[in-house]
Amino acid sequence: MPIAVLADTPQETEVMLLGIVIIVSLFGLAFAGYLVKWVMARSTGTPQMREISDAIKSGAEAFLRRQNKTIVMLAALVAVALFVGYGIVREHRTFDPVHSSMALGAWVTGSFVLGALCSLIAGYVGMWVSIRTNIRTASAAINSLNDALRMALRGGAVSGLLVVAMSLLGVAGLYAVATFTNAVPDGEETKIPLLIVGYGFGASFVALFAQVGGGIYTKAADVGADLVGKVEAGIPEDDPRNPAVIADLVGDNVGDCAGRGADLFESTAAENIGAMILAATLASAAARANIDFNYGIIGVMMFPLVARAFGIIASIVGIMMVKLRNEQGDPMKALNVGYFIAAGLAMIGFGFTCWWLLNAQDAPDAWWHFFICGIIGVVTSFLFVFITQYYTEYHYRPVREIADASRTGPATNIISGIAVGFESTALPVLVTGGALLGSYFVGKNAFPEGSGVSGGLFGTAVATMGMLATAAYILAMDTFGPITDNAGGIVEMSRQPEAVRERTDRLDSVGNTTKALTKGYAVGSAGLAAFLLFQAYMDEVLHYSGLYGKVDPATGRVYEFTVNLSQPVVFVGGLLGCMLVFLFSAMCIRAVGKAAQSIIAEVRRQFANLPRKNDMIQFPDDFKPDYAACVDIVTKSALRQMIMPGILVVASPIAVGVLFRVFIDDENPLIAAEAVAAFLMVGTIGGILVALFLNNAGGAWDNAKKYIETGAHGGKYLTDAAGNKIKNPVHAAAVVGDTVGDPCKDTAGPSLHVLIKLLSTITLVMAPLFIAVKDDHGPDLRDPARVTLPGEPVPDADRPNVFDPAATPTPTTPTTPQ
Amino acid sequence: MPIAVLADTPQETEVMLLGIVIIVSLFGLAFAGYLVKWVMARSTGTPQMREISDAIKSGAEAFLRRQNKTIVMLAALVAVALFVGYGIVREHRTFDPVHSSMALGAWVTGSFVLGALCSLIAGYVGMWVSIRTNIRTASAAINSLNDALRMALRGGAVSGLLVVAMSLLGVAGLYAVATFTNAVPDGEETKIPLLIVGYGFGASFVALFAQVGGGIYTKAADVGADLVGKVEAGIPEDDPRNPAVIADLVGDNVGDCAGRGADLFESTAAENIGAMILAATLASAAARANIDFNYGIIGVMMFPLVARAFGIIASIVGIMMVKLRNEQGDPMKALNVGYFIAAGLAMIGFGFTCWWLLNAQDAPDAWWHFFICGIIGVVTSFLFVFITQYYTEYHYRPVREIADASRTGPATNIISGIAVGFESTALPVLVTGGALLGSYFVGKNAFPEGSGVSGGLFGTAVATMGMLATAAYILAMDTFGPITDNAGGIVEMSRQPEAVRERTDRLDSVGNTTKALTKGYAVGSAGLAAFLLFQAYMDEVLHYSGLYGKVDPATGRVYEFTVNLSQPVVFVGGLLGCMLVFLFSAMCIRAVGKAAQSIIAEVRRQFANLPRKNDMIQFPDDFKPDYAACVDIVTKSALRQMIMPGILVVASPIAVGVLFRVFIDDENPLIAAEAVAAFLMVGTIGGILVALFLNNAGGAWDNAKKYIETGAHGGKYLTDAAGNKIKNPVHAAAVVGDTVGDPCKDTAGPSLHVLIKLLSTITLVMAPLFIAVKDDHGPDLRDPARVTLPGEPVPDADRPNVFDPAATPTPTTPTTPQ
Fold it and tell me: What's the pLDDT score for residue B618?
């Protein structure tokens, strides 16, 4: 294996691999910068366009500024609590990863602050670019569809690249700092991920508030604008006479762009760290079984970061390849071509990285087993996208059924949509289950029989990495949605010619599809990533309880942390976790309802004194709606109402872990941590299912309405006996469903994705709180007095305690080429 | 303890306790017979009333006949499969409860058939009595409110008593047969519950189809009748000109009466058997610790049955005490008085039974600890009722919020209802969690410290028994609902004077409340009972795997069956279990939507040629709707659509258990059974939450509409500028919510209660299928070569293997009085 000669010592390996990762991350950031320059150099269209765009810009920036202020204050409180808890309250233990409580506190708090900060920046920049890309996309649509398509995608790609590259840079950078400052004793690099778990928590903490606040904002404005505008006043969508229309357009930026950016930032960050923890566990186990990887433990630990780095390059190529040959081209096809290129390249890079870093002379089949796991991940993401399409596009049975049901009114429309939403959970769960079991068993068989090393859990981690390999491209497609939506709004409000509107309409409809698809992708990856993070949590509990690698005197075996759901305390933990999902969803949906009602009241107030004829408002030519009033109302409302659900999610797992410590006794020293694990796992299961229900029902309702608007069941308007155009009640029924679906699919659903991952990262960081540490847990494995059972093979007798520096095996050096 | 002298030998104890139970059950049945006679002796009112009642009767009987035919065929298939599986395919094992495979097959199949048969009878008689009580209640309302109230309650009580007494009689009878035919070797009475688990499965199998079929029927008819009748044609509810009105009234009988009867029958049956299994486990453990109960193992095993017998007597007294002093009395208060009497008496009986049968000289505090567990159960049922009231009655915030949201149209009404439904899961979960943990820890401390006996799991079983103690009364109140609903329909359709209608309206509104409350009770008891049944399943898996009481050579400890959710295979089992809940709900709701649409089409067909003025139908005086056509359509539709969801629920856990056997290996011999356990447990958690969501959202939507009908937000009609009465759009919006809630609260929700318990009983019966039996699982505990760990107290060294007859302790004899 000639590549192995690239580095001779573990230190050189570390420098080389970290170097690759950091350089690629910086390249990703630089490329994002290049795209910003490319976007900013284009035309900003007509003065009317700029006027509208400026209104959106100022609304979005004002909201994000105020939102970030609130989030920063909350994050500061958490940071102080973390530092006090880890640095001062908690006593130092010999098995801690660093030498003193203060150092541990500083690491955890510091990485939390950095993660939170990066997440804030990711969200802010995403919004900043998208509000500048909107108008340029609108202006490009005056020229050609291809120009507009490329503009919107490249603007979206800024977010995508920024998020993925920054999360990678953060993790690699923290790792580099830890390693070059000798934060952990030599040879204990496997403990470094424990120091930087705060990064993931900081990222998800910010993401939760950003997604909840942005989600409430966008849908309250949307529902409010639609209900009084379209339904009551009878004016079209995005009509400049609607006072809530700017708030609606602002919402797309702060909810869909900023929120989703923060969300995917924390996904990739948490997944990077979790995969490193599992990689460290696997590599240590392999080392104990005398299986030495070519690049040692370090190489395996760096594998997730290196694979991700290749994914960034693949995504960049994919993004740059997207173009339309002519005006008649299908933009969705163009995006798909780019995606397939990105996915294909990412898989080539993935395979190479497997062969390079997961190769061991004594386990020659390991690397390709893990490569298969990665392919399972990619296939899973394809399947998720197909299933989401089936349930939310109107070419298929589910959406058609909802449209049919609209013929008997809004009630049957809703009933039918609820049924579709419930049903749509089945296939994704089967796929997720299949992916987990498949990658687990492929990973389990990666090592030679009898070696005693199981790569099963790492296999599931690799599958997750495979699924997230093209995250940057996916996020670019996702941000494409709100950009085209806004571009359409700007074109509509500035009354551009029909041909231009048609172009933005086509892009907008593609944007709706990509938004729905990436939601399916997000929930699927959240499910897989969560499973990986559970395992990281369980590893961590053993570390911090001092039981890692120790013998349980009651069984004579190495302690294993199990989550026994049949224990009442654990079962109740699970029950509470699942309940949290429902209560949180209730809060999100209720917040939208309330905020929408205040918008409606405000719009009605502005319309109150306008002249009416036949109950239709006759707008005077000089009517100037007060956009700012609506923006202000929804800003305040969203900020106020994002606090409670956020605090609920952060506080609940901590409360369970701390309160359930009363159940700790000699036989069950880890019972509170076990209840938290059940809280996390059953909460994740519930979260996946409820998110699928909300996302897909919402998407299906939306498209059932769109399907009717294409002319099905009479279309939008009917003609009465006297030849007048009258509203079609079937369409009106479908509008009810669409409105109900809004907070489901764009507030509660996406917030649940964040919730799932926040639960994982918060428990990772808080784990030490849930443990009553005892120093006398049984003899050390290397204790000569250690017991064995007659007739039983001595378990792991020569297994070193990896947390005793003296006993750590000398770091494995890469083998020389054969 | 003077009562102890009542029996000298275990045989005498058995005869005495079984005698008490069987005599009380027979008394309960006889009393139900007396109530039937009492009801049948009353007047059946006017000829018009009889005509309507006859139409309902023939529709209900026709549906139930056809439904039962289908169910019997399905049950026969299952019975054959059970017999072949247990009697022929499965090899006999030495640790089996009986001497041969054939005998085991016969027992399991026989008890299944008996349970199914009793469940069919319970449903049929419930319907039979209720369609005869309807008309008599209507007729009694001509005289006085008190007469009508008592008529409806006593008619309902027939179901209640029949169900509870029959389930008790079945279990006690099967036990008696097993014991007196010496089916199990002497001294192995603890194995008898394993023989009769089929009874619970048979009961829930029938209950599922009855509830799903009846639930689809009742709501399809209701939704269909309302949408064309009230909304399109503008005729009032229960108007005889509506062709779907008879189908709607039939639905109340076949869905609410027959379905709920079968549901509660299986609840009590499964709970009786599950509690006996746990009692047997506890009593054996106590015997091994030399703690002898006054009535021995038999006394403890009979405790659940004896306590239930007292509950029947208490319920009878409560039912007979209900009366109104005068016309102004509040019927709800009268029902509450009866309930408090029943609950109070039941608790006295419960306390006495605890003191009598759970008393041991060496554990003098045990009995009152378990009594406290029982009280926890009763308090839990009170809390559930209060919480349900808070979320579904219009005196409180949630329903008012929905009514407020209706002012901005149906979309905000639905959004608000979804939020209320999600939110309403929180408090019940906290109460359930508190009850489980509370009773677990009270039970755990029931025995002296150091005795090594833990009554924790039995404590949770006792809490469930406390909650179900007044099941007969609760069921009477529940059946009261559809009876008064039908009585109101008959009064309305036969155009009785205003005063009579007012009386039935008052009762109907009370009936709506009791229906909602008992739904809260049902889901709460399902949650507690499920936890009990998990434990029974786990005990059973150990029995049938031959590992019960054996030492695991890998750990040197007695095998414990754990459900480790962090294992991928187990986690996927849990994920699938939760998904089943969503998919099943989808099927139920979708079935209602489809069946309702065919009703709507039929009614529109019948109305098509009627003259119209201003879009309002002008009914000719001789208009005769074709009721039978609607009844026929909905019958066919409900029967066709109950099959798939039923088969799904039965087949899924079996499929998981059998398919996941591929993951069995030496280290994980029970992995498939473990995955099924997770399927069951996480499925139950999901089932509880989704059922609460559906029930409470549905109830809240219903009452938000009723609240507006009391005049809030303008009431049902507004007056326009010209002084004409026009429909209030706020009310129309609330009607949409009400309609959406119908299939949620009356089809999917209650069916989920049955699903939860069916999952438990089916896994109990199918457990042997999921196990790969190996005969060489480690040394027996009594093996002298058995290992101990240095410094560890020899665990259970003198613990006999209860499945080796030679080693069984001589059955404990009751202590003589001190």
Answer: 80
Q: How do residues A671-689 score in pLDDT, each as one tens digit?
A: 999 999 999 999 999 999 9
Q: What percent of chain B has pLDDT over 70?
A: 92
Residues paired with residue A718 on neighbouring β-strands, in sequence order: A726
Crossing angle for the helix pair B197-225 and B145-180, to the nearest 10 degrees: 150
Alpha-carbon gap, residue A384 to A432, rounded angstroms: 9
Q: What 8-state DSSP symbol labels residue A2? A: G
Which residue matches tokens 């008819």? B221
Strands (E), A69-141: none
The letter for the amino acid at B532 is L
Phi-psi group of A323: left, alpha or beta (phi > 0 → left; psi -120 to 50 → alpha; rest → beta): beta
CA geometry: angle at A138 spanning A137 and A144, to 5°? Answer: 75
* Chain segment A452-463, per-residue pLDDT in tens: 788 888 999 999
Measured CA to CA, the distance from residue A451 to residue A449 in angstroms comes to 6
Q: Which of B739, B585, B733 is nearest to A739 (CA)?
A: B733
For residue A198, the SS3 value is helix
Average pLDDT over residues B787-808: 38
CA dihedral B670, B673, B674, B680 (to 10 degrees): -170
pLDDT tens column, B711-743: 889 888 888 778 888 888 899 899 999 999 999
Helix and strand numbers (H, E) in chain A are 21, 6
B784 interaction partners in chain A (CB closer than 8 Å) = none
Mean pLDDT value across chain B: 85
Give the dihedral of Cα atoms B13, B14, B16, B17; nearest 10 deg.
110
Q: How would residue A290 be classed by pLDDT, with cut points 50, 70 and 90?
A: confident
User: Which residue stretches of A712-815 are H helix?
Assistant: 729-743, 749-766
What pLDDT does A802 receive? 36
Query: Distance, in angstroms, between B533 CA and closest chain A CA?
Result: 11
The Cα–Cα gap between A688 and A426 comes to 11
What sign does the dihedral B210-B216-B221-B226 (CA atoms) show?
positive
Distance CA A535, CA B30 (A): 59
**Arithmetic mean of pLDDT, B318-346:** 90
What pLDDT does B71 receive?
93
Locate B62 and state its tokens. Answer: 């026709």
- The predicted-structure confidence for A764-794, as pLDDT tens digits, reads as follows 888 888 887 554 444 443 333 333 333 333 3
Phi, psi of A347 (to 5 degrees): -70, -35
- pLDDT band, very low/low/confident/very high, at B305 (cuts 50, 70, 90): very high
Residues 532-561 of A with CB under 8 A from B: 534-535, 538, 553-557, 561
| Nearest Cα residue to B505 out of B491, B526, B520 | B491
CB contacts, 8 Å: A432 with chain B: 575
Match 């709180």 to its residue by tokens. Answer: A769
Q: Is B11 on the interface with A (CB under 8 A)?
A: no
By the 8 A CB rule, do A607 and A228 touch?
yes
Q: What is the pLDDT of residue B814?
A: 42
Mean pLDDT of A729-747: 92
Sign of torsion over alpha carbons A484, A489, A491, A497: positive
What residue ranges in B592-698 does DSSP mark as E strands? 612-613, 616-617
Instruction: Please report which confidence band the pLDDT of residue A383 belongs to, taking 50, 70 and 90 as the band edges.
Output: very high
- Give the dihedral sign, CA B1/B2/B3/B5: positive
Chain A: residue whose CA lies nearest to B645: A423
Residue A680 Cα, gap to closest chain B Cα (Å): 11
Cβ atoms B220, B250 nearer than 8 A? no
- Measured between beta carbons, which residues in chain B are less than 8 angstroms from residue A597? 405, 408, 412
Dihedral sign (CA A408, A410, A411, A416): positive
Question: How many whole angstroms separate alpha carbon A85 and alpha carbon A113?
Answer: 15
